[in-house]
Amino acid sequence: MAAGSAQVGVLAIQGAVDKHLAMLEQLDVAARRVLRKEDLDGLDGLIIPGGESTTISKGLDRLGLCEPIRAFGRAGGAILGTCAGAILLARECENHPVPTLQLLDVRALRNAYGTQVDSFVAPADAGDEGGLSGMRCVFIRAPQIVDPGPGVEVLLRVDGLPVLVRQGRVLASTFHPELAGDPRVHALLLGL
Amino acid sequence: MAKRSESENGSGKSRRGAEAFELKIGLAEMLKGGVIMDVTDVEQAKIAEDAGACAVMALERVPADIRRDGGVARMSAVDMIEGIQRSVSIPVMAKVRIGHIAEARVLEALGVDFIDESEVLTPADDEHHIDKHGFKSPFVCGARNLGEALRRIGEGAAMIRTKGEAGSGNIVEAVRHLRSVCGEIRALQALRPEELMAQAKHHQAPYDLVRFVHENGRLPVPNFAAGGIATPADASLCRELGAEAVFVGSGIFKSADPAARARAIVRANTHWDDAAEVVAACRGLASAMEGIEMSTLSESERLANRGW
Asked: Which residues of A touch B138 (CB under 8 A)?
């Protein structure tokens, strides 16, 4: 998708919606909030933000948005899920499971590092990270991604654990690129 | 759970100063667009989570009961807080008395996700609030106006909520406080830079924070509403006036059908600017909590007057 003409939606049920919209604005991308299936029409990309995965999951169910988002992904729409968004994209999740969209072949462990007092900032591990080197990763009550399937590519790790993964046109991070002011993960979504 | 040790965290360096504050505000950002519900036991916490609350506030009595019962209201029992922490996956908040440093240390040691230094409890210090910078746990504090909000942020609060009038079921005070905070922000934006120091003096607020508000047109931390929210339309009104999320205290578990009311307030809050959705949220709801007319409360009965 080309940054100049791309239309990206941010799922606006609950969570850090504004921060993602600000990041898209910084990248000069037309963005809109998504609350209904019609809002997906004409989008090139969709961001499922951080927030509370329980809250967002219940909202998806009430609004009947799960199937339309799956269809959007199957039709080639690019999707980025951050933190709670990564949990919702997973094939399944553990530790107070919520229903997921099953668009990414990983398991998500909710609140895997502990409560808010265990939230942290850490640099991504050095390695073969392409254009993402030196990424400063902000983790807030973060999940972990485990057991990635064969189609899943790990793009970044922290302490050896996957924190940014890609499967086809689906991206998921357990950290918050929208909070650290580094637009490279969003740019990656636009490049898919 | 595999917790990262402080040494893995770069000798704890990454939790200090600006980075620590960034993490605190980070959780507040994640709560935006949500409803935080007061709960007094595990069963209520599960009802709140099932209804779509983005966090729960664990407390011994909801504000309406604190108001009715009188006496000294303190931090909740540790066992009750731990029980709620075990039973839900959403963030768990809890309240400490204004200025009660030791209660705050207890909640931090329990791993509570957000500490509310709250006027709803009986103040422990009638001059000083807690130095919140010194804690790993983020704090939320109440405010009636911009000066009070900036004083609390100066002390380290990572989230501001209006005080409203807790336990009243009456939205008028939350509206007054939202209009004050948001109106005073707009007024600061319009000024020239040399006028800001006089405004810092007027608001009794730190100059750097006054300058931040002037330049950015918002508080440096998320701005939520609390105190008197009892209906889906109340939540919608608070969002309309600039609140980024809402706290509902007595309004849910003092109503006739708490689970349905909790779901309705979550729905109206998500779609606060869509009247058809607010209508749908209101439809079929059993009666709201009764509520108190403000003129029947004496100044000493107003919880919002606590805090300095």
From this structure: 116
- Concerning whether A176 is annotated as a catalytic residue, the answer is yes
A120 touches chain B (CB under 8 A): yes
Looking at residue B13, the DSSP 8-state letter turns out to be: G
Distance, C-alpha B258 to centroid of its chain: 20
Domain limits of chain A?
Answer: 7-191
Question: For residues B13 and B307, what is the distance between their CA atoms, to the nearest angstrom?
Answer: 33
Write out the CATH class of domain A7-191: alpha beta
HEC assignment per residue over A114-126: CCHHHCEEEECCC
Please report the beta strands in chain B, taking only residues with DSSP state E, as ranges in sequence order.
35-39, 55-58, 92-97, 114-118, 139-143, 159-162, 223-224, 246-248
Q: How many other CB atoms sit within 10 Å of the CB of residue A71?
A: 12
Q: How do B55-58 and A45-48 pair as beta strands?
A: unpaired
State both tokens at B22: 């960034």
Report strand pairing: A136-139 vs A144-146.
unpaired
Determine whether B136 is an active site residue.
no
Q: What are the tokens at B131?
A: 């130095």
Beta bridge partners of B224: B161
Q: What is the CA radius of gyration of chain A?
A: 15
Question: What pLDDT digit, counting tens, does each position of A161-176 carry?
Answer: 999 999 999 999 999 9
Model pLDDT, residue A26: 94
Query: Per-residue pLDDT tens for A121-135?
Result: 999 998 766 789 889
Contact A185, A104 (CB under 8 A): no
Residue A185 has pLDDT above 60, yes or no: yes
pTM: 0.95
Instruction: Confirm if B56 and B39 have CB atoms less than 8 A apart.
Output: yes
**Which chain A residues touch B19 with a CB distance below 8 Å?**
121
